Amino acid sequence: MLSASLYIIICTARNRLLMRVRRLREPRYLIGAIAGAAYFYFAVFRRMGRGGGRGRSSFSPSALLARYGGAAGFAGVGLLLLAALAWIVPAESGLLAFSEAETHLLVPAPVTRRQLLVYRLLRSQLPLLFGAAISAVFVPLAAERRLRFGVGMFTLLVTARVYFTGVTRARARLAASSAAERSVAWAPLAFLLGAITIVIVSIVRVHGLLPLDTPEGLLSTVGRAIGTWPSALVLWPFTAVMRPLFAPSDAEFFVGLALALVVLGCTVEWVLWGDGVFQQAPDNVPEPTMGRRGSVQAARARNVGWTLGLSGRLDTVFLWKNAMQSLRSTNLVSVLPIAGTAILVGVAFATARMSATNQRAPAAALAIGSLFMAAFAALLGPQMVRSDMRGDLQHLDVLKTWPVKPAVVIRGQLLWPTLALTLWVWFALGCATAFSAAAFPSLAVGVRLSLSAAALVLAPALVAAQLTVHNAVAVLFPAWIPSGSQRARGLDAMGQRLILLAGVIIVLVVMIGPGAIAGGILTFAFYRVMGPVSIVPAAAVCVAVVAVEIAILTELLGAAYDRIDLPQVERSE
Amino acid sequence: MSLSVQHFTRTYVGSGGSAFTAVADLSFEVSGGEIVGLIGPNGAGKTTTLRSMAGILRPTAGHISIDGHDIVDDAVAAKRVLAFMPDEPHLFEYLTVAEHLRLIARLFAVEDFEPRARALLEELELTGKERSLPGELSRGMRQKVVIACGLVRPASTLLFDEPLTGLDPVGIRRMRQTIVDRARAGACVLLSSHLLHLVEEVCTRVIIMDRGRKVADGTVAELASRADLQAAGSNLEQIFLQVTGQNGDDRKVHSESES
Prior knowledge:
Helix content of chain B: 25-40%
Number of strands of chain B: 10
Structural class of chain A: mainly alpha
Strand content of chain A: under 5%
Distance between the termini of chain A: 25 Å
Structural class of chain B: alpha/beta
Number of strands of chain A: 0
Oligomer: heterodimer
Shape of chain B: globular
Helix content of chain A: over 70%
Radius of gyration of chain A: 27 Å
Distance between the termini of chain B: 54 Å
Largest sheet of chain B: 6 strands, mixed
């Protein structure tokens, strides 16, 4: 099976490379490849030639953490939390997602299930290797340390991927009727919970409750706590995987790598052994991950509590459809209660801390964090949330048969992501406003509230404008948008993405510009009379201008949508 | 109720600018109550024709009109009276069967949706699967959902592309009856299939395409009486092989297997 696996991997890699070279005959790929190569040259090779970030900044996180017991220890704690989070936040590693060809050709082949799993493990290595190589190039390290960092990162990524696969499979068996299955599923979770408890108890013992006075105090406390023996013992697997990344010398690196490989081996063996137990269980539940790649998991449709009415505006049909797709395809519904609880706990803690001890730090951190979250959702959200025309290009042959005006289709596609992201931004802005006094004590209440209100007004326009541009790209250049869940790969695809990103930014500036100028003039004219409140009507004017632009653009895009020819739409590799 | 295709041509432009004409100068009409079979070998242009009629592909030249509405110039009106059932069941991954039907009902403003949907689910043996996602259904079931989406609205023109793919024998029988019933109710039906016995059984007329061109058009009896096809007899399969020039290959295969 090993030779067959290698044969498949090598042939696939060779043919993929040939296909990518051949498609350079098409201008869109050639232009993308040139842009991608230029980016690589300027961002990677020149950077490597200069010896990375050496001498650019004297600040080094690992040097700082070394003073408190070593970066690997702190990274180990982070990894432990991440490992625990994997049990709470449902995520799929995709490691056991077999392609159609694998399902039809390899699964029926006379090979054991263990061999199939090993095959999938091997197949998943190439993308991880690429990811590790890229991270090694970009990390600000001396040239001689890059190779060590890359190898360490590769080991870490492989271990994490295998672990996430094991968690996905074990989580489905937490409530299995077979005792053997339950014990295999619960054992790692029990270990994690025990490890977290030990670490927390060690921290409390070192310092007492809530060691949050200063960052140095926190680092010192955690550093000392994780160095004591019960914590050090339970953290060992996590620290061991992280150690090669921070090894200062070749000798320490090889020792660290050997230990990391031991952890990787144990993780692989745990997944394979667990799989064996799960397979032998009498009530073998359907595999959540042993499905076809890109296919919908065989889970019952979650009741979202929103039934489409039989009459009404046609653009709201798209709002409903995209909302259903998003809410069911993501784990948003299961994550929201956890996130909501965490936020409530954070808010309660920050409030209690501020009123009891007058300490502003937690509240200020919450305000800054919320602002960051709002900015992230408003600026990067439209790029990431693709439940619009970009996601629907794969359903174009269905959409095109619907008796709906093209402009209505475009407008409808914008509704759900605009609504979802706006609500997210508003929520984050609300949190930031509530604690803004702690974060920005020098600003008067009126200024803070005015800025907040202006941001609330601007948010939907900013989000909708970006989504309009992204959807315009999908309609005008459908061949450049990968359809479905597959992501286009290769130098040319990366170049295409860079060109698109630059185009989106330019168009966005052009779109927001007139509204911003009009709003600016209004603020300038009325600031003396109204004070900082004047930025609120200015924001409203900006929103009105952007709304008119979006309305005109969607009409124009409707005509372009009507002319999209299906063969133009990119099919996945 | 009528479907009209006039001088329809569809050309695909491949990488490097090379052009391939899938359908060339195709013209025919289908009246209400007619079931027309569109047959031809692989690559004949049947699916391209059907997808262009449904508004998925734009004709390179020529006109297609549904009930007098041009599919390009008056697309919304044309699509409102049209139902296209493709051979590949493309469904939204995270909408249930019932939600698919509801979505179509809203888009096509179906008035008596609830009783129609119930009857259709019963007819297509989808009762009990209303809350299932497409990923939970077999290919045949998904095909039935696509058919249900097409039939839940009162369309005057029905386009079927390989409608029996994936269906079980009972499903095939029911589907056959459904097609006949819709035509009897006055709809014009265009059906593309490789199952020549089905075409012969249900279709009132047959159009044979080969390499993008119409090579025969008429009832089976009319085709059989054509001077150049008399040697083929009255069997549609023989007529098809004769018209598409594949009977020679067939004989060769037979003689090779006999030897």
